[in-house]
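Lecture notes, continued. The same structure-token format from the folding unit now serves as the input rather than the output. Read the line below as a description of shape only.
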């Protein structure tokens, strides 16, 4: 029996309904998927693009994230992926950060950027900042990979660092 119309006066939410049909196209699995974080602080030299080493996996459904050598996600399924990252940067002196940036790097090229800076840059600075970056990108499921890079600019050319446990990198399949 096909239901063509449900009328509100005939619907009883306390009733149980047995469904015997088939639903298609609902509930994507969103794997491969992973999330990793930085377990210790990482130094970042001012003005130098630095690969962020997210060294601890929180989860990795298909063993697609390398958390010990290249710090990259290489999915095994072709499709569109939502990729995201964030970090907490701090300067080596109080109120020293002018700007910090994070990049999603696909196959060696930066393709998305997130920055944190101040309206009166370079005249104003703060002691810490948290840039975020995210993008949806096509991955071929064999050779494509993504990594995260970061840059910090300080007022006195001091170096900065990324705070332990406050930096994360993740991604998941959106659709094939």
């Amino acid at each position: 029996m096909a239901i063509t119309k449900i009328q509100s006066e005939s619907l009883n939410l306390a009733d149980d309904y047995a469904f015997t049909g088939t639903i298609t196209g609902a509930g994507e699995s969103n794997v491969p998927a992973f999330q990793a974080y930085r377990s210790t602080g990482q130094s970042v030299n001012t003005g130098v693009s630095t690969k962020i080493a997210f060294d601890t996996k929180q989860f990795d459904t298909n063993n697609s994230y390398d958390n010990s050598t290249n710090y990259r996600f290489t999915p095994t399924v072709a499709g569109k992926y939502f990729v995201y990252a964030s970090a907490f940067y701090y300067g080596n002196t109080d109120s020293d950060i002018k700007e910090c940036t994070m990049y999603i790097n696909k196959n060696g090229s930066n393709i998305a950027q997130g920055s944190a800076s101040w309206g009166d840059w370079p005249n104003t600075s703060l002691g810490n900042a948290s840039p975020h970056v995210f993008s949806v990108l096509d991955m071929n499921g064999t050779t494509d990979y993504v990594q995260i890079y970061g840059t910090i600019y300080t007022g006195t050319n001091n170096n900065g660092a990324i705070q332990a446990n406050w930096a994360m990198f993740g991604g998941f399949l959106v659709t094939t």
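Point for the exam: Residues 37-81+101-129+138-147 form one domain.
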